[in-house]
Amino acid sequence: MTGAPPGASQSTESAARPSPGGHTPVMLREVLAALSPRDGAIYVDGTFGAGGYAEAILDAADCRVWGIDRDRAAVTQGQAMARRYGERLTVIQGRFGVMDRLLGEREVTAVDGIALDIGVSSMQLEDAERGFSFRADGPLDMRMTPEGEDAGPSAAEVVNDLPEAELAEVISRYGEERRARQVARAIVAARRERPIERTAHLAEIVRKAVRRGAKGGAKGRHRGIDPATRTFQALRIYVNDELGELDRGLRAAERLLAPGGRLAVVSFHSLEDRAVKSFLRERASAGARGSRHRPETPTPERRDPTFRPLTRGACRPGRTECEANPRARSARMRAAERTAAPAWDTPRTGGAPAQRGAPAQGNAR
Question: Deepest of 19, 39, 63, 113, by most Cβ within 10 A of its Cβ?
């Protein structure tokens, strides 16, 4: 474990406990150490899922927790936990990218800590009918909000409707798949024969394309992971606009956290971690300063830091946790404490995230 937050021992391994639903929260010890729950405080579990972080925070202090999840199934399941904790826990359906608005509507304008576990939950992966995983056949959906006005195109619609070049861009950008063009070409050829509507069908197409392209070069690129992994990841991120949601969520957290409030973000792949790292690095540094030749003046470039890092780089799970929970192996946590400076009102630099239905050109964040 590296870069441990204050309160987390570097000599002890990560320990996590299953929630009532059987889900094991990743890097629970590190998240709790970063948030340092205290009596009377207010916390947000912005990616509620099975409620693992929320439960641990509530058990650590006599505090109040707001759970947020865009998945109606997670919110429904969370009601049983809410009944157990009474008024100390409230679970609401919505996106963490607008958490400040969701809580503002409930007369909560500042909180003392926010936990985010980015990406798909174990519950979603294990439910074949949701279409997130290639390990069991199911409808090719992948939407975290499959119903209602918030529901966008499914993964099946994306693979059957996007032009080949755009499909290759999605797979390359969000899956970091080196053979994205071969995969997109194979998908387009297969959909001419019949629509791609099942996870097993898509996985078979992708595996053949990747293995065929791997002959004679780049050995080991996919060793240890299923060749379909990167394409499924790309489609999931694209369908749910996950990087855009993460960007909005980080800025919402900046607006919502009280001075001294803490943010802990657990991510599972380089695109997510890169976005969190970039945001916190930017927010922790002051903008351009004046000199004796050019006095300081209030400009958009001169902003006071809004976060103070709590870790040296990313904090990683310990060996014991990785052995007990393989999902933890790729996890990274970054944590920071809110300063008293006003929130930055403009989006961070580096370009806006690609919007669903319109893949961005150029390099990923």
Answer: 113
